Structures are given as structure tokens and as C-alpha cells.
Amino acid sequence: MKPRIIKVMQGGGGEFDTITKAIESVASGNTKRVIISIRPRSYKEKSKIERNKPFITLLRDPKNMPNLTLTALPSSMEL
Fold first, then answer.
1. Cα(16)–Cα(3) distance, rounded to whole angstroms?
2. Which of 4, 9, 33, 34 would be 13's cystine partner, CB 3.0–4.6 Å?
3. What is the distance between the alpha carbons of residues 76 and 79, in angstroms, rounded to a whole number?
């Protein structure tokens, strides 16, 4: 069975413009592989994959890496 592929590209051209929105689109209790393909751009967001959303893979092009920046302040970071 082929995995579901979700394309993320900030500024358009993908199904979602943020990684967080792509993760949120995956149903809780998902039982199938979902690949979130992150296109090269700068992403400034706080993304979290919950335990009830297994089988999610974040994929990027190693020759043209996206820039991922955590936007939370240290006092509000979750471990």
C-alpha cells in the first residue's frame, strides 16, 4: 500500500503552507504511513507530533534543505 504524501511549501504550491497544518490534517489514531514532504523555504513555527498520530515521516531534499526555526521562548518550551 502506498503512503499518503502531503506536500508543504510556504508561500503556496503545496497542500499546506505550514508543517503544523500538515501534521494537524492527519487523523488521530492513524494506522497508515503518512509522508510530509517539506519543500525548501524558511519555516518559523512550533510543530509537535502527538503520540496518537503514529506513522508520520517528515521528509526533505538533502540537497536543498528547508530552514526550520523554533519560535517558542525557552520558558514556554515543552520537553
1. 17
2. 9
3. 10
